[in-house]
Design goal:
Elements: H1 3-15, E1 20-25, E2 28-33, E3 38-46, E4 56-59, E5 71-74, E6 79-82, E7 98-99, E8 104-110, E9 113-118, E10 123-128, E11 135-136, E12 141-145
């Protein structure tokens, strides 16, 4: 299984209502599971002895780590973060902007696909944790909305 296929599979299972998934093909074994009350998935793969893909797991707390500023928007996938629709365009949002649920906050490019990141909350952008062009991980904090 190619890395891109693995990422696509993880994204699909993560977005679905499944709580577990197992896949075996030849010498490769893949197992993913979600725990209730958490967002994200744990991934264990055994393609060759000693090879393990680290777990991606985040708690769904609704508040930033160590702060009561607001709710955290996290990256739903691995990719490159873009704050604006084009290099010469204004960013979608800045600190202090009021946002509505469903409003586009940024774009994450993954596997040559541009994925719009929409606000999950109504509120004001309190903090932006990543910069334009920065690589982001699954579950990484992107925005604080208060």
């Amino acid at each position: 299984m190619e890395f891109e296929d693995l990422i696509r599979l993880i994204e699909t299972v993560s977005k679905s209502g499944l709580t577990g998934f197992k896949y075996e093909n030849g010498g490769m074994k893949l197992q993913m599971s979600k725990k209730t009350g958490q967002r994200g998935i744990q991934v264990q793969a055994d393609e060759t002895p000693g090879q393990l893909i680290p777990a991606a797991q985040t708690e769904e707390t609704g508040t930033p780590k160590g702060s009561e500023m607001g709710k955290i928007m996290q990256s739903p996938l691995v990719g490159t973060f873009y704050a604006a629709p084009a290099e010469d365009a204004a960013p979608y949002v800045s600190v202090g902007d009021t946002v509505k649920k469903g409003q586009t906050l940024a774009i994450i490019e993954a596997m040559k696909l541009m994925n719009e990141i929409e606000s999950e909350y109504d509120g004001v952008i309190k903090e932006i944790y990543v910069s334009n062009g920065q690589a982001v991980e699954y579950g990484q904090d992107l925005f604080c909305i208060g």
